[in-house]
Input
Amino acid sequence: AAKNLGGSRTSFFREEFNHQLQAALQLEAEMRQALERNEFVLHYQPLVDARSGALLGCEALIRWQHPIRGLLSPFHFIPAAEQCGLISELGAWTIRSACQQIARWKEAGLQVGTVAVNVSALEFRHHRLLDTLTTAIAASGVRPGELEIELTESVLMTDIQTTQLIIERLHALGLPLSVDDFGTGYSSLSYLKHLRPAKLKIDRSFVKDLPGEEGDQVLVRAIVQLAHSLGIKVVAEGVETEAQQAFLRDIGCEILQGYLISRPQDAKGFEAFARRVSNTLVDA
Ligand code: C2E
Ligand code: MG
Ligand code: MG
Ligand code: MG
Output
């Protein structure tokens, strides 16, 4: 009986495994098709000056306009793309699209500041990344400071020597670095000294209970001080309330991003935001 039980358990796992494998293969095939059919889109979320509200830039965030499942968040396909090796292709699509968008905005005379693109761990280590960036920048005429790269802490802390080399190449291309989800990785901070990112983005998890949560107050203040003493600017992610905004502004966090300012929107929606903001600033 024990043998039977073992046997059926094995086949249960095998079936479950087959099922997951099938699903993964299907998703991969669909993503390849989606690249061909141009079903991915970038949405843009503004980053603004905490004091003046001026537009400093935006973050490009990928979505998948799936023919059946509707607009899919990156959580539904980025991890899968990393697993099946499609991430560098998807990343290349993102980089090319962001560069083309920058060129269109410039042509239209719209000033949007720096456009940030997220680069995930495997994509960062892939030999194609630098080629992709070089080609996309050349083709679109993007100039230094118009495009920047967001990387998470954990990416920066693995294999620091290779990382430093890649970052130096990015700098040579005129691409500043922004540390995403800051505070959620391990807290060996020595990489900051070596890599000198332009910005730290305080993870939303530290922002969401501000200003009420004292522990978060202390942490966020400390991050701002640390960053400033290294000459790094601080972005607060996920700002949703005026109380958070006021607290962050008062402790010297210079850049804000979050639903309070604007949700991520498609290019048209973001353009409307950019025009509105620059008009208000001119009026004020
Ligand atoms: P992230 O880079 O940390 O992006 C911030 C996420 O927080 C975005 O989710 C954004 O929509 C959301 N967010 C912004 N403000 C608020 C707020 O006030 N409240 C709340 N609750 N959420 C807010 P999204 O667009 O779903 O992206 C999730 C993650 O997927 C990103 O986290 C990033 O790690 C990844 N991702 C997005 N686009 C790309 C891409 O083109 N390439 C790669 N490799 N990863 C991407
Ligand atoms: Mg990001
Ligand atoms: Mg982030
Ligand atoms: Mg995040």
Remarks:
- The first strand starts at residue 40 and ends at 49.
- The pocket of C2E (ligand 1) is lined by residues 45, 61-62, 73-75, 78, 91, 94, 118-120, 123, 150, 180-181, 204, 237-240, 258-259, 264 (CB under 6 Å).
- The beta strands are 40-49, 55-66, 70-72, 114-118, 147-152, 177-182, 199-202, 233-236, 255-256.
- Residues 2-37 form the longest helix (36 residues).
